[in-house]
Design a protein that fits this description.
single chain; alpha/beta; Rossmann fold; seven-stranded mixed beta sheet; about 30% helix; globular
């Protein structure tokens, strides 16, 4: 587990103050594990059976929670750029179904030199494209500057929440 992940989660916890977190595309669940260490009820989802079977603490799953289950923070970190546009639409619908207040996205966007370094990146779009796409579901904001990697983060809020 990397120290940078702990530092990221601590800054997110101070900003979002979540009680329940869902990490969409959790991989081996590093973020889920850190959230739980901080006393937050956290779970994750990933399509990789290998990642989930090797996850920290057993709080990551290959299935979505029940439709009625909502989380005050849903994170989706370095996932969307690996999907096709059609898959992004499905992912956003799934996230929307489980978000009750906040959504945090980390996306490798057009112009980021890291995009070409990962051959699994398939969807290279501008920040404005992503903001428009996400605004179909939520109010969209740039991440606070004190968030690590804020240039690749977008914060969304469910409309009508305080």
């Amino acid at each position: 587990m990397e120290a940078k992940h702990l530092m990221q989660v601590v800054s997110w916890a101070e900003f979002f103050e979540p009680k329940h977190v869902f990490d969409y595309g959790c991989g081996t669940g590093e973020y889920v594990h850190i959230w739980r260490d901080l006393g937050v009820v956290a779970f994750g989802f990933d399509i990789s059976k290998h990642a989930v079977s090797n996850s920290y603490g057993g709080y990551c799953f290959n299935e979505f929670p029940a439709e009625s289950v909502r989380f005050d923070l849903v994170s989706c970190y370095d996932v969307l750029e690996h999907l096709t546009e059609e898959e992004v639409d499905q992912a956003l619908a799934n996230i929307n179904q489980h978000a009750s207040k906040w959504i945090l996205f980390s996306i490798c966007m057009a112009g980021d030199p890291n995009f070409a370094l990962d051959k699994t990146h398939v969807l290279q779009r501008s920040r404005s494209w992503w903001k428009e796409k996400l605004s179909k579901y939520w109010d969209v904001f740039d991440a606070p500057e004190n968030f690590s990697y804020s240039h690749q983060l977008l914060v969304c809020k469910v409309r009508g929440t305080k």
